[in-house]
Amino acid sequence: MPPEVPHYRSSVTPLVRFSPSVSPETQLNQLYRHKCWRGETNMNFSAKKLIPFLVLILSIISVLRLVRISITTTSYSLHPLPASPPLGDSCSNSSSSTKFQSKKSSSMSTTALQKKEYQLLSNLISQRSPCNLLIFGLEPEYLSLSSINAGGKTIILEDDGTKISTMTSDSNATRIYKVDYEVPAKEAYNLLKHARETPVCAPSSKQLQVSKCQLALKHLPQEVYELKWDVVVVDGPSGDKLEAPGRMAAIYTASMLARNGNTTDVLVHDVDRTIEKWFSWEFLCDENLVSSKGKLWNFRITDHINSSKFCLAEAVTIV
Question: Is the pTM of this model over 0.85?
Fold first, then answer.
């Protein structure tokens, strides 16, 4: 008998593995998930590409808006608002108002009064009216001040003959005189030193008409020296250029005339300029300043005819 051969069972795992059978529904689900995953990837990729384009479009829109704003601003600046009508002046029709405003804007001087400055003056004249009013400088607003000073006396001193010929007053109590100012504004420094070093310029000196002080105005109408003034306004001569007549002598003379009265209000315009500021401090004094509006200072002077100094405080040293 042949020998018995025992049954042999290998312990090695076969190389080929058989997966269990998959149902059709499961296969469809797997295919759908695969397609969805690919679609999400494409969408994310497309969104990343769109971001730079969106940024570019927004930047272009912003630039266009800035250009539009700049064009609009330029158009407004090229068409300024018309100037307001002069104080105290009323017009019967719009056409005459337009002509007057265009002429006024082309020839308006730098000394024109602001509304609040004129209000300060008109209120003061109303309170002290009827009074003696002296004005250095001729402007349309000052003619209306003379009408407020009903019953009083108003004298206006002007060096510009053209202004005098074009402006007249209806009041018999208002007189306009032509005067001459010979000293240019560039001499202000030397005149201030002269006034400090020369005793003849002191407030206790002799009358202005015979004064030897270089700042004294000695050729004004006689009634200017004779009257006791209640209000004096210094807004002339122009003093807007070095070669033009300055207001040094007008401020000094106003301070001397004010000390001949009981109580005199002296108002100086354009105090934002060096000469007007220096000479106001020197001869009208900071302690006498009672009010101000814009570029207009109001000093109230009492009788100090026997005093050897204009101000109680020490003057500012100049070198």
Answer: no
